[in-house]
Fold:
Amino acid sequence: ACSNSTSDAKSSSSAAPAASSSSSSAAPAASSDAATSETSSAAGGASNSDTVYKIGFQGPLSGDNQQLGINESNGVELAVEQANASGDLGFTLELVKSDDVGLPDKSPAAAATLIQDTGVVGVVGPAFSGSTKAVGATYSAANLALISPSATNATLTTSGFTAFHRIVPTDAVESAGTAKWLAKTVKSVFIVDDLSDYGKGAADELEKGLKSAGIKTQREGVDAKTTDYSAIAQKVATSGDEALFYGGYDAQVSLFARALKSAGYKGVTVTGNGGKSSVFTEGAGDAGDGWYFSCGCLDATTAPAAKDFEAAYVKKYNQPSSTYSPEAYDAANAMISVIKDLAAKGEVTREDVMAGVKALDYKGITTQVKFTESGEVEAATINLYRQEKGVINLLGDMKDQ
Amino acid sequence: MQDFMLNLFSGLTRGSMYALIALGYTLVYGVLQLINFAHSEVFMSGAFASFIVVNALVGENQIPGWVVPLIFLAGLLSGGLAGASVAWGLERIAYRALRRRGAPKLAFLISAIGMSFLLSALAGKLFNRYTNNQFPDYFNKDAVVFTVFGAEIRLIQVIIIFGAIIMMVFLDRLVSGTKLGKSIRGVAEDAPTAALMGINIDKTISRTFVIGGALGGAAGFLYGTAFVFSNTMGFLPGVKAFAAAVLGGIGNIRGAMIGGLLLGIIEVLIPALPFIGTKWTDVVAFVVLVMVLVLRPTGILGEKLGRAA
Amino acid sequence: MTTSMAKTPASEDPPVDTRDVIYEVDDVTLRFGGVTSLNHVSLKMYRGEILAIIGPNGAGKTSLFNSLTGVYTPQEGSIMLAARVGDQPVSVLGQKTHIINRLGVARTFQNIRLFPALTALENIQVGIETRQKAGPVSNMLGLPWARREQRESVKRAYELLREVGLTQRANDLAGSLAYGEQRRLEIARALGTSPGVILLDEPAAGTNPVEKQELADLIQRINREDGVSVLLIEHDMKLVMSIAHRLVVLNFGQKIAEGSPENIQKNPDVIAAYLGSEDDETAEGEI
Amino acid sequence: MYLFSSLAGSLGISASGTWQNLGSGGWMTAAAFFLFAGTGFVVATVKFTKSKTIIAAGLKLAAPKSSDAGGLFGSPATAKTLLLLVFAAALFYPPTATSFWQSVLVTQIGIYVLLAIGLNVVVGWAGLLDLGFIAFYAIGSYVTAYLVGSLPPKPPWGTMSPLFAIPFAIAVCLVAGVILGGPTLRLRGDYLAIVTLGFGEIVRIVAINADDVTNSTRGPSPQVPHPVINLGFTRFEFGLDQLQYWYLLLIIIVIVVVLFRALEHSRTGRAWAAIREDEVAAQASGVNTFRFKLLAFAIGASTSGIAGVFFASDVGFFTPDNFILNNSILVVAYVVFGGMGSLPGAMAGAAVLTWLPEFLKDQVPAEDRQMWIGAVVLLMMIFRPGGLIPAKRRSAELHDYDHHESLEVSAVPAGEGMGAKA
Amino acid sequence: MALLEVDNIEVRYGAIKAIKGISFDVAEGEIVALLGANGAGKTTTQKTVSGMLRPSLGEIRFDGKRIDGIPAHELIHLGICHVPEGRRVFPRMSILENLEMGAFRFKKPDEQILEHVFEMFPRLRERIKQQAGTLSGGEQQMLAIGRALMGKPRLLLLDEPSMGLAPLIVNQIFDIIKEINVEGVTVLLVEQNASKALALANRGYVLETGEIVLSGTGKDLLADDRVRAAYLGEEIAH
Ligand SMILES: Nc1ncnc2c1ncn2[C@@H]1O[C@H](COP(=O)(O)OP(=O)(O)OP(=O)(O)O)[C@@H](O)[C@H]1O
Ligand SMILES: Nc1ncnc2c1ncn2[C@@H]1O[C@H](COP(=O)(O)OP(=O)(O)OP(=O)(O)O)[C@@H](O)[C@H]1O
Ligand SMILES: CC(C)C[C@H](N)C(=O)O
Ligand SMILES: [Mg+2]
Ligand SMILES: [Mg+2]
Structure:
């Protein structure tokens, strides 16, 4: 009767470092023999130098929402591999992945793993907003720069996390877009969120937007651990609201989608970037058809700028890239560019990397990586997607829909 | 009225699964005065085993309508069988040795907890750790069977409610009418003396676990079909079913049934009230439990094994 | 019936004060569903006496005990209690068991109920300490008065152990004592609560004649030396007749007789309902 | 594999193999062991013989034999030596440990030892099965977060440094303990277990759903700041260094242990033992069983609350997921595993079982840890049902099977004080 | 050949040796009494015979067949019925259900025997539906004996049947034992009430700390000074 969430319930009470990191017991630079398989594989095309710098990645690599994390870690891994293979680094780059299961309570341990590893000079991630919130201050205190490819909660850049930067637009922007779009077609919206920083944040922003557009709304929160959505689905179905928005992540939306179908809900169904992944498509089955997704993210399979990236990705992973893979690739490359510049000048410290990240101006495949004072990226587009016959298709820029 | 009916049936659906699981708790409690903490893993094992069977039978194929009931039955049986064997092994490993040593009650509880950890982690290792595995869609679960007061009652609900009721009636007969039932009650009340009457204690206890396990495993299949399943799925339904068993009067078979159904209904009806909200579902369950126990310390029907009142 | 037990013939000036009533049971009726286990029972118990309650199995003796100690609440009648000298009578109906104990009523059980995992000494201390004041905080901090109380409780417990002849076994677990020793320990624990009256439910059941003798001596000593009144249920007539000052006989929940041992032994109703014909007794005695 | 502390690092000592994870601290501790073992043994034997002579001298009124550690650690000399060894290790090992183990020591071992000590009062001494113990830990944590201003509602009187929340947490937990215990402590064993379990879940779910108060699953925000102790003349600021927390925690644990030990051997402790052994007989002996049970509950609750404050202060961030039922069950498992009713047992149980998963981390895949822990617990219970260090008072419970119930218990259910309506 | 032969058995509780090698026998149709102080090992002996305990040494034969080590639930099929110490009725079952449990080894309880039990103990018939746990001590004792009779014993083991019974009932119980015996049931009786037991028994054994110290016919033992002093509580020294 006793096991709880995915990996191990006990360590959920733990703030012990590395409680849930899968592969990341990375050795300090000194003891190279202890490098784990995963770290060395990332070091793939080893360069001739024996200086080693590491970038960390924090995100969910296990648990229900692992696909979102894996998408990103693949992107980062690809970037690191390409950098090492390019031969012009002058040092070896290693990737240290730290698994936070996407849960805030596992985040401190995951962060501690990276922070305690003095070889780590910069971090891509955390992937999720809640995880970021839990450790933003810790990373900032440790002066370890973060570039998140996907943590979209609006308040992350206003919480005094000096280390935090992101290359995607916030949920405030995304949800405002969704609200405008919804207001064009429906008069009442049922809003459900998963109580997480991301889900609730997105839902809050949406509610704000809809209210100001004079749309009637209704709110409920459902813990992300729920596996039985029949009660809430029934409530939605009998509410008569014309649209439903769910703020939360892929695995949960897919269950909700099924429950809604069972309950016979016929309205417009929408979710944010957290829902857009293959996990949703597979989990929801045909109940997922018709769902809309808003996402400040690029579809690398169609975007011309990402052609090379997509080819390399498919070659390495035997599957097309997915949500946030290109963004993670960009974030990693941006980070690498900073380290590379510093390494050319001498030793690379966390402080230097931090300063370097703040001063970045790097052209990525998804966007121009250049941060405002608060750590936001300057340029941003929100796209609208829709699932049809088990495939999520890009409909285009939200503004135009 | 329509909403009420909808909720009532969805409550009954949940409730009948709780009741099936609760029976396992109650039976074991009846004979050993112990909370079998690993029973939730028995339930879980039923879901996995039946998935393997059903998935093998269905595969990617299109299933003709007349085979569906057979597959369903196969799922039910394999779930029950798996539950029964896990429960049997559980008793052998985690209980019998301690019983022989005359261990204190809590030691049993802890060894059952150890077993529960082990089984759940083992299932995670053997299969996977996603919390949302699903059975193949081999029939239209959501087909509307009939409508009451405008509420559409779906196939899966009907199957679960009737399946559970049939199993419970069967169990009730088994325990109240037969020698097995007598020996269970005898061991429950005073094991050494029961032995003097010619009752084989070990066998009786084993059988009790097996019966409870079979029901729990079958419930695992039903649950997996209706919702999703995982290696940790046992936990919450397990706790609730245990609560249901206590609610009805632990050790009391009909109590477990009534407690389970009641808990399921309450759990759906109360949060459906406009001012409460579905997120309080689990709280409602526990608050009701606490209140009932404070008012009626031995549960609704009291503690007698195998009797209604 | 030439036994050694009749050391103190009961008639020999009992220390009884008939003006001072400990228990006044008035017209008490106790029912369980269809079973009436006490049927309009009235009786008085006086300070200083050893009062025995006898009667056939199921006559309601234990039920009476349970009513006197607040375990059962009779549907009708009243039970007033003034256990210690100078107490005002209070009603025991509906009172909690531990309150009744504090009012000066101690009891033992028909089946021994010690704390088997505590030592003999500790068993008695539990009783003694319910009369003490120190709270958990002063215990934790080991404040002076708490320690003084603790010393007193150990001292008193040893006294009681000596009184029941168990000094040697002070530090043995109660569960490891022999049956007869456990019976005596249970009495010592009861005495630890400084009762005015002690209720003994079949204390001699399952003990052998030698132990019965020791028990009889002990009860008389408690009664005479400690001034504790004794209410006794017992089926062993030798024991009862040798130590009781007065007897009350119950049958089918009703009081059928009351009086001195001599009178009771001759009472034809009692013989018919309970004692059996004299022939049996003598026949056996002659062998 | 992890960073060695600078001390060990500069000494250049390093270990290898599977024990690597322990850092060089193992070796240094071994040294300290030897040092202390010597003195410890001497002190212990001297004391031991002395107390024997006192008894021989005829001072008969000596208090009864201490009744906790029996069995393996039966003799007072070994017990004392062992105690000294443990204490030496607690003092001298942590600075030499890797920072990984330092934080395991604080956030896992230390805190759970404290929790186990608290629960031991409830389960081990008073014999009440509490499956919602973590709720009080949660309450302690949330009280702290509230008082430092990390929750949406702000305290009207301004914020404070986290550790000063201890008295408030104790007070709130006492009240919560009494609120829970008041109506429910009259229930018998397993009913109490399910009610406490329900209470634990209610607290957790309320923490999730009372969004405006607790910030739901997002946890306190901003994080709980690191504690500052400002005594006017000196000012002590805690940082990320786990050692500071360790020594603070050690002090807390020592104080609690000393106090609880005194309690165990006082009238309160005996009353609990009596209730546990036979509630009806305890009542008949004048023990106000309800009051003592409530007391045990409240004491356990407040200990748990202290642990909560400490946890919140150290880690700074938590969510309702830190307070899942599983953790309540685990604390019970620690206590039973170590030896119910035995203080050293409960502590050892918690220490071993919290250490084990961290240790296993390098030996088995992370996902398999739960399985190993389950197996260890299972084997332990099968082969040593009394626990690691069984309590002497409890060991009498290890009767054989046919002893399990005196007839009168079931024969007179009314005697249990509930169905007494006749 | 005796019905029951106990041959040099030794029984232990862990390290404690409760029975240190005793031998005795009970012939078909006999009543044999086991006497002894508290803790002498009477109950232990009976439990070993009925299969609740296993001897660590020695043999027990019933009807010539070895039975030591056979568990209680199998032994009952040979007709060894045990009225255990402390009555041990099933407290939450009714009187009737308790009696039916006594006949568990048969497909159906024998109505005639049931009737016979009710004749012997009319109180049981009056309370046929009452929960056994709420019966008075003496009533429970009657029930326990009745329950054993339902199992159609060949050998009836009685452990202190008179404990807690009113004097009148004690006499009745001994009459009933006699009656059962006359009907062909062999009885092995443990009693504190030595005088009554020996008066009834054909033969008796006296146990002391796990060993048999005396044996003989009931009459002889009753006349024995040591028995009179130790078990009848009589002073013979004057
Ligand atoms: N809780 C109860 N429910 C129903 N009947 C009860 C209950 N308690 C006692 N009785 C009945 O009340 C009657 C008196 O019982 P009680 O235990 O007082 O007898 P007693 O005089 O002590 O007998 P004994 O000498 O055999 O111990 C019995 O017939 C018994 O069955
Ligand atoms: N379960 C047990 N564990 C350990 N020792 C036991 C156990 N049961 C009995 N003993 C011991 O075995 C010895 C014999 O006990 P037994 O019960 O057979 O005596 P008895 O002759 O029946 O006494 P009584 O007259 O008190 O019933 C005693 O010393 C007793 O303490
Ligand atoms: C990977 C993404 C779905 C993460 C999400 N946008 C968040 O902020 O948490
Ligand atoms: Mg009685
Ligand atoms: Mg005996």
